[in-house]
Amino acid sequence: MKRILITGAAGFLGSHLCDKFIAEGYHVLGMDNLITGDLNNIDHLFKNKNFEFYHHDVSKFVHVSGKLDYILHFASPASPIDYLKIPIQTLKVGSLGTHNLLGLAKEKNARILIASTSEVYGDPLVHPQTEEYYGNVNTIGPRGVYDEAKRFQESITMAYHRFHGLETRIVRIFNTYGPRMRLNDGRVIPAFIGQALRGEDLTVFGEGNQTRSFCYVDDQVDGIYRLLLSEYAEPVNIGNPHEITIKDFAEEIIKLTGTDQKIVYKPLPKDDPMQRQPDITRAKEILGWEPKVNRAEGMKITYDYFKGLSEEDLRKSEHKDFSKHIVR
Ligand code: UDP
């Protein structure tokens, strides 16, 4: 049986990846320090004999006994609100954490896939974003702690690949959504759905002309799975190219939830990328992958998930105000 270590196992993507690898017949070692992760996301796995969980911060030395075939490094805060709250941990898990896991991969002769992000492209001047684009990142802005940690992560991963011959994979993840997103992480989908469910107006930042392209979690997990098992070491974009403005998206949510909420406009957060759409030519050619779930289907499943949460969860999700971080 293949053994895989998944860091960030209690997070949104990490927990779905644990499910996927368990379903594919792997023995999964989940690791998380639970700063932004939630054990409820993996509660159903604790009774499975092929799942183990370690409460550990991967920014510190990581020890795993026994053989290890694969490592997926998905531990990291991943929402702008979290970077503002825990900037140093964000930098550490992307840099020190990645270094520790690369060292572990080398020691165990394991293949490692690291979770990078469309944030490496910053506020992009090239559209849609291909993997060749170097990006437009403000190193010292609020998002810099995440963007630069992820850019360093890619560099050190390629250095281990080239210098030590380690088998490495890099996925650049574009906005992904689905059940188990944290309701209070400030990201646009849980924010809008939480607002609709609490009967509040939907807060669109700026004029809402900025665009995003949202990928359903099952498609994202399938892309990551294929990349891990591929022979390709350069970065690969995984995301859904179907792009929408945030204002149009707010209107879609109002229709989906059948509520009569209005849209209210709030200041645009600093360095908020104005447009984002993955070019997925590489993923199509190398992995034979493209997304299958359209936004209407994926959002329906996601909305039903959030609707099933308790009143208390909803109260905890109240909206955070970004206004002190404005520049535009
Ligand atoms: N956004 C918004 N209202 C909200 C939360 C987010 O208009 O209540 C916007 C945000 O300014 C950004 C987009 O939605 O342009 C996506 O934000 P998110 O935090 O989900 O992720 P990002 O892609 O910016 O990392």
UniProtKB/TrEMBL annotation:
Pathway where it operates: Nucleotide-sugar biosynthesis; UDP-alpha-D-xylose biosynthesis; UDP-alpha-D-xylose from UDP-alpha-D-glucuronate: step 1/1
Name the EC number(s).
Answer: 4.1.1.35
Give membrane topology per the record: Single-pass type II membrane protein
Q: Name one Pfam family in it.
A: GDP_Man_Dehyd
Q: Which domain of life is it from?
A: Bacteria
Top enzyme class of this protein? lyase
- Cofactor(s) for this UniProt protein: NAD(+)
Q: Where in the cell is it found?
A: Golgi apparatus, Golgi stack membrane
Keywords from the UniProt entry? Decarboxylase, Golgi apparatus, Lyase, Membrane, NAD, Signal-anchor, Transmembrane, Transmembrane helix
Q: In this protein, which residues make up the domain named NAD(P)-binding?
A: 5-300
Concerning its family, UniProt says: Belongs to the NAD(P)-dependent epimerase/dehydratase family. UDP-glucuronic acid decarboxylase subfamily.
Which PANTHER family does the record cross-reference, listed alphabetically? UDP-GLUCURONIC ACID DECARBOXYLASE 1 (PTHR43078:SF6), UDP-GLUCURONIC ACID DECARBOXYLASE-RELATED (PTHR43078)
Q: What is the name of this protein?
A: UDP-glucuronate decarboxylase
Please give the organism. Psychroflexus planctonicus
